[in-house]
UniProtKB/TrEMBL annotation:
This protein's name: Peroxisome biogenesis protein 12
Pathway the protein takes part in: Protein modification; protein ubiquitination
Origin species: Lactuca saligna
InterPro entries per the UniProt record, alphabetical: PEX12 (IPR017375), Pex_N (IPR006845)
Source taxonomy: Eukaryota, Viridiplantae, Streptophyta, Embryophyta, Tracheophyta
CDD domains: mRING_PEX12 (cd16451)
Length: 389
């Protein structure tokens, strides 16, 4: 096989890496949905939704920093039992042929790699989200300008014309800032599609190469940092809890001040760690809950939108023949008016009976009614039938 699909070896499968990469987006969707539901009863939560990017960036910053510090892995990777390892490439010479070869060895992740990992995991996604929102706003503004004209500039001109002379300098500074901001937004709107397409194409190329076992780096970010993602061994998983407890005990020992201050700081530190642990557990539960609700509401919506098949309605009853009307012939192919076989059969829509076109046109033009039912009709109610063609 060209790529690994099983769970053996230290190298994670493509599906494990893909699941770990998609977990932050699922987590953000779950939090956004939960806050949106709660905002229906607590309107002040709308402010959190207004600063959704900043709120989620701060949350991921706390989670990723804590996870990289304690487990040498991102928050999503630690949930899947993965660890980041630095790649050291040593060059060695062959004694006989004097050829060079590469040998990759894994070592622990370093401090600067942890810092850069936070940048790739938190800062770059935040900037990408802000650029994407700017691009969407500029695209909507361009669409609105193409349909209705540039309304914003008209209002700006009106506001400037009514401004007082005492605040002219202030308006000038604001106009300069506004023009600069608009230019930057236009530059972002022009360059962002190309940058986004390039980054997505590069990420897809790395994922394809990883799937084909052509590289050990799942993403260009990991390649730039020189990090491989490996499965954690059983001993590493057992040492994780001891490492976390050791780090927390060292932090408690570093507390300074009077005994009562140390006690208060220790209680706050313990509460903070407890909140962080419960937050991680709650976030995992939120992701699974969001996926469950998404599946439930999607299936319910599909059931609601599915077309309902009703039985065909019964045919309407035949119209009643008037006593003073022209009786119908026994042979249904004959015209009731001329008692001959119908020529150019035509029906009257108010009754549905069929006659010769010439006969029914002459009769309706003269009497303005159906010959059989005596229901009022006009020549506009005559329809030609083409079943004999």
């Amino acid at each position: 096989m060209l790529f690994q699909v099983g769970g053996q070896g230290s190298r994670p499968t493509f599906f494990e890496m893909s699941a770990a990469q998609q977990l932050p987006s699922s987590l953000r969707a779950a939090l956004t949905y939960s806050i949106g539901v709660l905002a229906l009863r607590r309107p002040f939560l709308h402010k959190v939704l207004d600063y959704e990017d900043e709120f989620f960036a701060a949350l991921t910053l706390i989670l990723e920093t804590h996870s990289l510090r304690t487990t040498d892995a991102s928050f999503a990777e630690s949930l899947y039992g993965l660890r980041r390892r630095a790649v050291n490439i040593h060059m060695k010479k062959e004694d006989l042929r004097m050829e060079t070869g590469n040998r990759s060895q894994h070592s622990g992740i370093r401090k600067h790699q942890k810092l850069l990992s936070v940048v790739f995991l938190v800062v770059l996604p935040y900037l990408k989200s802000k650029l994407h929102s700017i691009y969407n706003k500029e695209r909507e503004a361009a669409l609105q300008a193409s349909l209705w004209g540039n309304v914003n500039e008209t209002f700006d001109e009106m506001d400037t014309s009514f401004a007082s002379t005492s605040s002219l300098d202030t308006h000038t500074e604001l106009s300069v800032r506004t023009q600069f901001r608009k230019r930057m937004h236009k530059i972002v709107a022009t360059c962002y599609p190309w940058v986004h397409a390039g980054s997505e194409g590069l990420a897809f190329a790395y994922q394809l190469l990883y799937l084909l076992d052509a590289t050990g780096f799942y993403s260009p970010g990991l390649h730039a940092l020189g990090l491989h993602v490996c499965r954690a061994t059983g001993q590493e998983l057992m040492d994780t809890s001891s490492r976390i407890s050791k780090i927390r005990s060292n932090e408690r020992e570093r507390l300074r001040g009077p005994p009562w201050v140390k006690a208060v700081q220790g209680v706050l530190l313990t509460c903070g760690y407890a909140v962080l642990d419960y937050a991680q557990t709650g976030l995992i539960a939120a992701v699974f809950g969001f996926k469950m609700m998404e599946w439930w509401y999607q299936s319910a919506e599909e059931r609601m939108l599915a077309p309902t098949v009703y039985p065909p309605p019964p045919p309407p009853p035949p119209p009643k023949v008037a006593k003073e009307g022209i009786p119908l012939a026994a042979d249904r192919t004959l015209c009731p008016l001329c008692s001959q076989k119908r020529a150019n059969p035509s029906a009257i829509t108010v009754s549905g009976f069929v006659f010769c076109y010439a006969c029914v046109f002459k009769y309706v033009s003269q009497y303005n009614r159906c010959p059989v039912t005596l229901v009022p009709a006009s020549v506009d109610h005559i329809r030609r039938l083409f079943h004999d063609l």
